[in-house]
Amino acid sequence: MAEIKDVVREIAEQIRNRVEGIRRVPEAPPESNDVFPFVVVYPLTGEYDLHTPEDMVGLHSINIELHVARKDLARDFGTLVDIMDDIPRELLDALTDGDIGESSSDVNLSTFGAINYTFRALEWAGVETLGVTYTINEVKVKANL
Length: 145
Known about the structure:
By secondary structure, the chain is α+β, with helices and mostly antiparallel strands. Helix content is about 25%, strand content about 40%.
């Protein structure tokens, strides 16, 4: 049965394998990090609904945080904007290509909707970073009961 943790793991794997310039994409949020740029993927919000008596459908929002070390604003800004389009592009390509989703694995990620982003100062484990927070909306996951 597919679970939200499987979807988070699949999204992290796609970013790890498809997006150049990102040095670390852990499977779970780390306690600390000293490798930049890095990405963290985690569930944000969601709901579960009984689709049929045998099937449950989850509709989720998943956050992806892209962190760049905050040392030299001009350089850090350049690093961030050079790769910030690559994450949504590669995830949408993976969905279109069938590398992620129902046809690719047991994850049963059917589809997802828009990917929103916010560019801002971030922090991870007490370290100031510059980053982008993406929210993948309407991540649809089917599971058998």
